[in-house]
């Protein structure tokens, strides 16, 4: 598969090249999976109502997505929670900084997140530039 300028996708099938307009990637892929947190060792279960993207105990995440759920990021660093911000309605977002590449990312808090950890982060946010 070859990507040419202006979104034209060229694909080789049986030695022949076929072209067309590249489809826009979906912005969200549902991934609600079990995992073991690399930071605290917590066995994390799926949320059941949306995609699980961080540990509810230590709030850490993993830099594996470009768009939510796509698992296309090559970094693989740990996303460390550095601050909490008010989002729409009554939601809050956890602000992360990747310990490997420095990327800043935001995720919506889950219903089962550790509120003591949330309060601690809100009381001591990390300042980034």
Written description of the protein model:
- Helix content is 7%, strand content 33%.
- The protein has one helix at residues 115-123, and strands at 2-4, 8-13, 16-21, 35-36, 43-44, 61-62, 78-86, 92-98, 104-108.
- The strands form three sheets. It has a four-stranded antiparallel sheet, covered by helices on one side. A three-stranded antiparallel sheet has the order 1-2-3, with no helix packed on it. A two-stranded antiparallel sheet has the order 4-5.
- A hairpin with a 3-residue loop joins β1 and β2.
- The chain is globular.
Measured as a percent range, the helix fraction is under 10%
Q: Beta-strand percentage?
A: 25-35%
Q: Helical stretch count?
A: 1
Spans of at least 5 consecutive residues whose pLDDT stays below 50 are 1-10, 12-25
Outline type = globular
The SSE order reads EEEEEEEEEH
Q: What's the N-to-C terminus distance?
A: 39 Å
Q: Would you tell me the overall average pLDDT?
A: 79
**Rg over CA atoms:** 18 Å
Report on the biggest sheet.
4 strands, antiparallel
Give the class from helix and strand content and strand pairing. Answer: mainly beta
Order of strands side by side in the largest beta sheet?
6-7-8-9
Secondary structure blueprint with pairings:
Layout: E1 2-4, E2 8-13, E3 16-21, E4 35-36, E5 43-44, E6 61-62, E7 78-86, E8 92-98, E9 104-108, H1 115-123
Antiparallel strand pairs: 1-2, 2-3, 4-5, 6-7, 7-8, 8-9
